[in-house]
């Protein structure tokens, strides 16, 4: 099967994690993975990003498929269920806004910069080697530490489910996938209403 340029986007996902390991400010690049899927789903009404351009999904597919690191078992039904997926999306948003709140406190100079990456929302890993200060406000670095924590945690969760189940099992309950799916449903419903009105 002929390969396309977007079949190699897993390289960018891997590069992102490595860059953030050595310089935390590169974590800001992760916002592309946040906004591009939303733009595609809002503009096109499709999950094109998830199905074609998601480098993380490709990485799991490569590691679990070609390298055989997956048990290739079906993901449990409860993980596919709406209550779990929507519940995880809500939990993800709570953690995301908590990270933004911490960033705001640092910008307001109410709180000092915490040079740590929080893995799985509980385990704080010292990450001071990745930041040595810049001309930018410490709040910029605080956001980077927080956002890298989110990206690293979701990658670890994806790797765990990749090993236990099918390679791209993370895609079933990925918050971004759930969010873009909701956007697509709303767009299609609005489109159907407009069509019926005509």
Describe the structure.
This protein is mostly helical. Helices cover 65% and strands 4% of the residues. The chain has nine helices and two strands, in the order ααααααββααα. The protein has helices at 10-22, 31-44, 48-53, 55-66, 77-80, 82-107, 138-164, 170-173, 175-197, and strands at residues 116-119, 123-126. Strands 1-2 form a two-stranded antiparallel ribbon. Strand 1 (116-119) and strand 2 form a beta hairpin. Helix 1 (10-22) packs across helix 4 (55-66), helix 2 (31-44) runs parallel beside helix 9 and helix 6 (82-107) crosses helix 9. The radius of gyration is 18 Å and the shape is globular. The chain starts with 9 loop residues before the first helix and ends with a helix. 26% of the residues are buried.
């Amino acid at each position: 099967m002929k390969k396309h340029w977007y079949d190699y986007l897993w390289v960018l996902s891997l590069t992102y994690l490595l860059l953030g390991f050595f310089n935390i400010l590169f974590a800001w690049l992760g916002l592309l993975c946040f906004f591009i899927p939303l733009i595609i789903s809002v503009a096109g009404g499709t999950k094109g990003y998830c199905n074609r351009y998601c480098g993380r999904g490709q990485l799991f597919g490569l590691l679990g498929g070609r390298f055989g690191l997956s048990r290739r078992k079906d993901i449990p039904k409860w993980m596919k269920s709406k209550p779990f997926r929507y519940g995880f999306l809500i939990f993800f948003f709570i953690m995301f806004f908590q990270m933004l709140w911490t960033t705001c406190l640092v910008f307001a100079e109410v709180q000092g910069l915490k040079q740590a990456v929080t893995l799985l929302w509980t385990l704080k890993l010292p990450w001071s080697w990745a930041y040595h200060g810049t001309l930018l406000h410490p709040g910029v670095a605080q956001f980077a530490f927080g956002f890298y924590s989110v990206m690293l945690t979701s990658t670890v969760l994806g790797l765990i489910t990749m090993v236990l189940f099918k390679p791209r099992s993370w895609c079933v309950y990925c918050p971004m996938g759930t969010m873009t799916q909701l956007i697509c449903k709303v767009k299609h419903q609005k489109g159907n209403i407009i069509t019926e009105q005509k």
